[in-house]
Design a protein that fits this description.
Number of helices: 14
Shape: globular
Strand order of the largest sheet: 9-10-8-7-6-5-4-1-13
Largest sheet: 9 strands, mixed
Radius of gyration: 22 Å
């Protein structure tokens, strides 16, 4: 056995209780399975009317198409070999931008835009430019607004790179997953290191100052050795941020994941070993660990926000975005308002019919009670900082916060004390339990106890 292999073997932990728990990822609270059709277009119009002129808002554009289907993916997307369906969708997306822009006109300025999917980078350059123009024609933008793009390096060419640069791309997030060819083949995502490097270099040459790489652990055929090798290669690209996600195997939700043989998947103990080894390697390279699964260079704005207690969590993961309002555009996209959450129609054809008739494409959502707001605040603080202040909880939410404080106290002195402790005026997840923070957050989830939704494993 080599020294490297011996070191990796020594880092493998003994089984930890809770590793196999199925719990939400908590990019919102309440989580999407608890949305309902009682929140409709009329409700959301009222929420839009309540926006004020100096409010800052974020926009999320969901592009629901890919030119290939990665078997690990759990996003709302569909594969197409032809561009005609994309053209039809874009026509409807422009109509939705026109409708929503008209409703919020004069009430809010755009602080951030995020292109996600699917694969927004499969759009043709001319369509990228038209989208950028439509957004600026219909919404008021702050001068220093950011624009983030999720990039599949296999899609990119000079024209697309130039087009995204022309509409103001400031951050590029590249999907990497794993550089091991055996793993890539098993997830139908073949992508060389050389290609990835070329796109990183290309976006930086066009003035992009923040590059993020997405990595996955828990994939078929992954080992500690292969994950360590991928992390090492990724670090040579000096990304400003890294995200280290656990693969969510949910074949009951995404049927194409049945293409992955479950016998190829590492168990929960191996997943934990992979994630901890990768995290130690990234931190050892000078990055700061942020929340459950993000890392950033110390000077990066996300790291700065985390040190100041201002890191947030939304549907794109961890962010420094402080906007209370996030408006989702495109099928399945989720919006967040002060009053609650709203999700667009998932089926692309139904979405197109709704927006083409000039309507909002709202399918469902949830209006937030004070209890929801308090629990959401606790869960977000746990997910972002592994702690929350008892004083802040009561000051923010009064009697509701006091009731929730009693729940936290009971949890801290119960048999779950290894997950949550009271230290002074703060409830804290101990460092050794950080990988299980989703399990801790679930203890405050009032809906989870009564729901029947299925979730991915905690680690």
């Amino acid at each position: 056995m080599s020294n490297a292999a011996a070191t990796i073997q020594e880092t493998r932990p003994t089984p930890t209780p809770g590793l196999g728990d199925s719990v939400p990822r908590y990019t919102s609270y309440p989580t999407a399975p608890h949305f309902h059709p009682g929140v409709d277009a009329v409700t959301v119009r009222g929420w839009m009317d309540a926006l004020e002129g100096d409010d800052e808002i974020s926009l999320y554009l969901h592009i629901p198409y890919c030119d290939r289907l990665c078997w690990f993916c759990a996003c709302h997307t569909k594969q197409t070999r032809h561009y005609a369906p994309v053209v039809t969708f874009l026509r409807s997306l422009h109509r939705e931008i026109e409708t929503v822009g008209g409703l919020v006109s004069g009430r809010g300025k755009v602080r951030a835009v995020h292109f996600g999917g699917g694969s927004p980078t499969m759009l043709k350059p001319e369509d990228i430019l038209l989208l950028g123009k439509a957004l600026r024609d219909r919404f008021d933008f702050l001068d220093n607004a950011s624009l983030s793009v999720e990039i599949d390096p296999n899609d990119m060419d000079e024209g697309r790179l130039d087009a995204f640069a022309a509409i103001g791309m400031t951050r590029a997030s590249l999907g990497v997953q794993d550089f091991d060819p055996k793993v890539q083949k098993a997830i139908n995502r073949e992508q060389s290191f050389a290609l990835t490097k070329s796109i990183v270099d290309a976006v930086r040459a066009r003035g992009v100052t923040s590059v993020n790489l997405d990595l996955l652990y828990g994939l078929p055929h992954q080992t500690c050795e292969s994950v360590a090798a991928t992390v090492g290669q990724a670090l040579t690209l000096a990304p400003d941020r890294l995200a280290l996600f656990g693969y969510a195997h949910v074949p009951w939700f995404k049927k194409h994941q049945t293409m992955i043989d479950e016998a190829w998947l590492p168990d929960s103990t191996a997943r934990l070993a992979q994630s901890q080894l990768a995290a130690r390697t990234i931190v050892g390279a000078g990055y700061e660990a942020l929340g459950l699964d993000h890392f950033a260079k110390p000077q990066d704005t996300l790291a700065v926000a985390a040190r100041g207690g201002k890191i947030r969590r939304n549907f794109q993961g961890y962010t420094e975005d402080q906007c209370e309002t996030l408006i989702g555009l495109g099928p399945s996209s989720i919006s967040r308002y002060r009053q609650g959450y709203a999700q667009n129609i998932v089926a692309t054809g139904e979405y197109e019919r709704a927006v083409d008739s000039g309507q909002l494409a709202i399918a469902r959502g949830i209006e937030l009670s004070v209890d929801d707001q308090a629990r959401g605040w606790v869960i977000e603080r746990l997910m972002c900082q592994f702690a929350f202040s008892a004083v802040d909880l009561v000051e923010r939410f009064g009697a509701v916060g006091q009731k929730l404080l009693c729940e936290a106290s009971r949890l801290a002195i119960s048999g779950a004390g290894e997950l949550l402790r009271l230290e002074g005026e703060n409830f804290v997840v101990p460092a050794e339990s950080h990988p299980l923070v989703r399990t801790v957050a679930a203890k405050f989830d009032r809906y989870l106890r009564n729901g029947n939704a299925r979730h991915s494993v905690a680690v």
